[in-house]
Amino acid sequence: xxxxxxxxxxxxxxxxxxxxxxxxxxxxxxxxxxxxxxxxxxxxxxxxxxxxxxxxxxxxxxxxxxxxxxxxxxxxxxxxxxxxxxxxxxxxxxxxxxxxxxxxxxxxxxxxxxxxxxxxxxxxxxxxxxxxxxxxxxxxxxxxxxxxxxxxxxxxxxxxxxxxxxxxxx
Length: 170
What we know:
InterPro entries: TPM_dom. It holds the Pfam family TPM_phosphatase. This is TPM domain-containing protein. It comes from Simonsiella muelleri ATCC 29453. Residues 21-144 form the TPM domain. With 170 residues, the chain is of the alpha/beta class. It has a single domain (3-152, 162-169), classed as Diaminopimelate Epimerase, Chain A, domain 1. The chain has 8 helices and 4 strands. The chain has helices at 3-13, 17-21, 26-40, 57-62, 66-76, 105-108, 113-128, 132-150, and strands spanning 46-52, 87-93, 98-103, 167-169. A 4-stranded mixed sheet has the order 3-2-1-4, sandwiched between helices.
């Protein structure tokens, strides 16, 4: 077994759900869910958050990467299945201290990968400093600004919240 695989296994073993959930209080997650809903009234995008505490030993040994896992959640949560193909998933693997953003084709045409990576880096920095809710909030604000600039809601346009706004902690 490679050294980095062993270190990664330990990181995942040390971050079970109950340990990670304490950094994300229900009251703070509820406020963030409300902010997601408010954000979606300003643009045509749909935003989802997933914080996954860790992967199983088998997945770590298989070399599951955070990008691959983010795409899996993107599909499972049907973030791709919005009317304007404008869903954005912000995915955090807590054990790997990694953030990924997956955007559907309706918004990825307008926004560069570098822009998404910049947001991921900002969020990761907040997490490294122990500011977990602030990191999620910063990520939401940045994605909101991008969606407002690229997919603004026009006056009189019907407001449809196509996806749940809750933050998934698993």
